[in-house]
Every structure is written in structure tokens, then in C-alpha cells.
Description:
This protein is of the alpha/beta class. The protein has helices at 9-26, 57-65, 84-87, 104-109, 119-122, 126-132, 144-155, 158-183, 207-216, 256-266, 269-272, 275-278, 287-292, 296-309, and strands at residues 52-54, 72-73, 94-95, 97-98, 101-102, 114-118, 135-138, 191-196, 201-204, 230-233, 246-251, 282-286. The protein has a 5-stranded parallel sheet with strand order 3-2-1-6-7, with helices on both faces. A 5-stranded mixed sheet has the order 10-9-8-11-12. The protein is globular.
Amino acid sequence: MTPRPLHRTASLMALLLVIFLSASAFATNNTERNRVTLLGGKDTLASSSQRIVTLYQGATDSAVALGITPVGIVESWLEKPIYHYLRGSLAGAEQVGLETQPNLEKIAWLDPDLIVATRFRHQRIMPLLEKIAPTMVAGSVYDFKASLSLIADATGREPTAQAILERWDQRVTDFRRKISDSLGAGWPQKAAVVRFKSDHVRIYSSGFAGSILNELGFEQPGSLADQGWGMKLTSEENIPVINADVIFVLLEPDDPAITQNYQHWTAHPLWQRLDAVNNERVFEVDAVNWIMGGGILAANAMLDDLYKHYDLKLPPNGELITCRAPAMESTESAKC
């Protein structure tokens, strides 16, 4: 999206100077809020001035789901610079750096009406962001429902967000019923979400995928009790920790070192003894859908994967990943 006219250059540069000179003064004045009061004390941005910068993946996904094209976004973790499933909707968005290190000068240049950040990533620079524009702060990078509601509340799209979340609830109910009918006494299943890296393996107990699996009725392996985010495994001797009824393997196929490590671990005799391996319940899944996307569209893509892997029939219009709300000024109804 085209930046504001060049005659604003001087004022923007002056703003940047104020930002950096004010950093130390504001660094100790950070608040624990989940949102800010927006323009002129109002809680909703004017529909004609919704220039939004999103500083984490879940916020970018949520904005697109609500029919918003942000003026600025951070680079994706994989499939750089933008996840494939979002590229068609973000053709006009400017890159403003990394999620862990956004470029404040670029953000200020875009002259946003709203910045959407997360406390987890941006705690230290929050005073600087708030000098550029009103800033809304999410407590978590993976709570896709909170991210969607946060942006919807700020932009007057609450009805659209409500429709999207209601549709999600319907899909969750449908999935839980169908998988219970399909597996019978074998449900619920204990599920392990495993990510292979070049020199170790991670098994997740929480986060984006973990929270969704929990909502769908899956259980965690007993080895993950009280393990926080999960565990990092560096030795094949730890393979029994992964034991579960089903294993979802997150891969980064473009990395030969990861592929080699995956092949090495899965060839080990201890891997061959895992329940999921013996019952042919090891599924390779898309890391973007399962942990990286972080928003409602990615959540629905993950749910689509689960319908497919368990050979369950999708409900009519079940694939919400294809849904995108219309622009605010459009008279078209949301197809969600």
C-alpha cells in the first residue's frame, strides 16, 4: 500500500526523533493492558482511516480474515516473506521487518492509525510504538480468538468476528462428534505434536496447535504433564517420551538438515516401538497451518488437515480457510 504523501516526510522524521529521545523516559511506564483507547477516546477506528500495522503472524492472519489489508506486516517465519495462504490478500502490504525486531522507522513512515502488537514480542519497545500510533497489545501470540476479537473491536467488525467464531464453534462440535463416532472406544486419543530441527526434536504441550487439539478433545501424553511449552529432546534415548496414540510431525521440507535428522530419528528402533507408529497414526503436517500462522485462518486449515487425516467428511462450506470477509466499505455480506 502506498505511503502517505511526501510532504509529511519532515513531520514523520521529527516524530522518529521524539520516539528515540523519549525511549528511556517511557521504558519504565509500560502498562499491563490488553488494549488502548483509540482515536479521540473512541474505542473504534473510523472506517475511512483504518491504516493498520500488524506485528505478529496471528494478527496479520486475523486482519485478513476480517477483510482488512494491513498497510504494514512483519516477515513470515517460513515461506518468506509472506505465507503462501495469505499472499493473495497482502499484495499491497509493506514489510516492516521481523516479528522479533520490527523497523520503527518504516512503521512511522506508514503513518498508521493502529498498531497491533503482542506483549510477548514487543514489551520493550511498547513505549516507542505508542508514540507512533495507538497500539493494541495481545497477551499471547497464539490465542487466535483473542487476536481476532482485538482487531474486530478496534475496527468495528465485531459482527464479522462473531460470525467467524460461531462458525469455528460449529466446526469444532462437528469434528468432536464425528471423530468420537469413528473411533468409538479409541477416543479420546493422546496426541503428540513433534517438530524436527536440524540437531534436536521438540515436543509441544501448549501453544497454537496444543490449544486447538485440546479444544477438539485430544489429550496429552502423560510425559508432558507440568512441562510448560513442552520439551526439547537431544538424544534418541528420549524417544519413548514421544509415545502417544497419534503423532503429528511438523516438518520444514526445504531444509535438508532437518530432513536428515527426521530420517535418522524415525529409523531408530525406539521410534519403531511407539504406539502411533505401530498403529500407522503418524501424520506429517504443515508447520505453517499448525504453529506458524497463528490466526483463525490457519486454525481452520489445521482443522481441515485433521478431517483429512481421520477420513472424516467435512460439513457443507466447511473449509473456512477459503473465506475472507469483505472490505468495510463493501455492501457484500461476509461469507463466513
